[in-house]
Amino acid sequence: MPRASLEKHPHEVAAMFDGVARRYDLTNDVLSLGQDRRWRTATIAAVGALPGQRVLDLAAGTGTSSEPFEAAGVRVVPCDFSVGMLQVGKDRRPSLPFTAGDATRLPFADESFDAVTISFGLRNVVDTPAALAEMLRVTRPGGRLVVCEFSRPTWAPFRTLYTEYLMRALPPVARAVSTEPDAYVYLAESIRAWPDQRGLAAIIRGAGWSAVGYRNLSGGIVALHRATRPADGRATRPADGRATRPADGRATRPADGRATRPADGPATPQSDGDGTSPRAPWPTSTTPDSPRRRLGRSSRPEG
Length: 303
Known about the structure:
The structure is a single chain. By secondary structure, the protein is of the alpha/beta class. The chain has 10 helices and 7 strands. It has one domain: 3-Layer(aba) Sandwich (Rossmann fold), CATH 3.40.50. It has helices at residues 10-20, 24-31, 35-47, 67-71, 83-92, 128-138, 156-177, 182-193, 197-206, 291-298, and strands at residues 54-58, 75-80, 99-100, 113-119, 139-150, 210-217, 222-228. Strands 3-2-1-4-5-7-6 form a 7-stranded mixed β-sheet, sandwiched between helices. Helix 5 links the parallel strand 2 (75-80) and strand 3. Helix 7 (156-177) runs antiparallel to helix 8 (182-193). It is globular and about 50 Å long. Mean pLDDT is 76; it is low at 1-6 and 236-303.
């Protein structure tokens, strides 16, 4: 099976993931040295969904990322455009409501979800701004977006070693554990071509999301971006099909003559390594009785 190109034609990307579906979770665990479990747990905590809330889990694949939400009483909808992934997921996790869908044309009504999350999938979408606009459309006002994606290590020497691993070590490791190693060559290429933390934050803000912030995981190998749909304005859809920022997203000048920064000002970089930061844009610690803490406890990944 030929690997997808960086032009990311949807049929090529979908076919590529169809081909790796059976061993996808195992291969990810091996190639990430088990870090994918920690990244998944951090993503769930960042979403902060409460029991009964509705969460859209995009690029959900076989449902590994959705299962902890369901276990905590969250009404999660796993969605992916790879039919092969969905079939494997339905066999392994029959209780989950797997849904086929394209991130740039989501099959859901406006304001359907309390939160939308996508892990390691936004990088594979043919039109990133259009996908983020669709996520905005299906999220209720005040709802949340959490994107977990590969990013740029923050320490230059480590960044060099990481790049060498992606381009030289990852392909042979993939050949040992995957039946479709070419798919992981695409993985390495797509990570190198992806924007860094600030670049992705700017794209998210440009799609109409507010309060955009991020924090680094594993030294910046992965970044969690979180944003909010503005509560005081509806996402509007112009002729080109993309959601636009509400008119009140501009800086305003109060009576004292000083301009104030709107809620969707520049993203706040959060370089906290693998732990927490007092400057993080979302709660990183909770009380033992908090529903968010209960979700974290019930969301321990497999293995």
